[in-house]
Amino acid sequence: MQDIAVIDNPAAAAAGLDPIRARLLAELSEPSSAATLAGRVGLPRQKVNYHLRTLEQHGLIELVQERRKGNMTERLMRATAASYVISPAAMPAVAPDPQRAPDRLSARWLLAVAARLVRDVGELITGAGRAQQRLATFALDGEITFASAADRAAFAAELNAAVTRLAGKYHAASGRSHRLVVAVHPSVNGDQAR
């Protein structure tokens, strides 16, 4: 089971977003049969089987084991990932595009950049998985408290200058290109945005 999988197929996204199927995916962090799941989620086994087949067709769950139980074969299924992210590639016609509104101070632009990040890294993860190779990535995540909006603006200016200097120092005319994303946004923790 993968830690996280990126869904880029529209039909797979629709299948995973169905409330019953989403609940079954959550229940399938450990292998389970349709009969066991039916008891847990309070649905008839036939209806659970129907949803499991749909999830399996879209690669969201996988067969772990088959075993004979009386005159029938019981199939134990498991989710293919502990978590799923739906890529904007699942809805390409309406996917956010940072080029449409390149205002670096806009929350919508930040969201479009983040969507592109999910799409791109999702494609890279898929390709690396097929090639059975590791994907070279790096990320920073932290939290900072600013005393004022002026301090936040000063921080953004200094961060921009530092990143621009580093990019200039290491940027080469040839080699493998990498995308750099640095984001600053208010924390979502119940506090009022400042």
Provide a concise account of the structure shown.
The protein is of the alpha+beta class. It has helices spanning 10-17, 19-27, 34-41, 45-57, 107-130, 149-170, and strands at residues 2-7, 61-69, 72-79, 81-86.
- The appropriate CATH architecture of the largest domain is Orthogonal Bundle
What is the total number of structural domains?
3
Uncertain segments are none
The rounded Rg comes to 22 Å
CATH topology of the largest domain: Arc Repressor Mutant, subunit A
What pattern of helices and strands is seen along the backbone? EHHHHEEEHH
**DSSP strand tally:** 4
Instruction: Give the overall shape, derived from the CA principal axes.
Output: elongated
Which structural class should the secondary elements be placed in? alpha+beta
Could you tell me how far the N terminus lies from the C terminus, measured between alpha carbons in angstroms? 40 Å
Major beta-sheet overview: 2 strands, parallel
Number of DSSP helical runs = 6
CATH class of the largest domain: Mainly Alpha
CATH H-level superfamily title of the largest domain = Winged helix-like DNA-binding domain superfamily/Winged helix DNA-binding domain
Spatial ordering of strands, largest sheet: 1-4
Helical content (DSSP H or I, runs of 4+): 40-55%
Mean pLDDT score, rounded? Answer: 89
As a percent range, the share of strand residues is: 5-15%
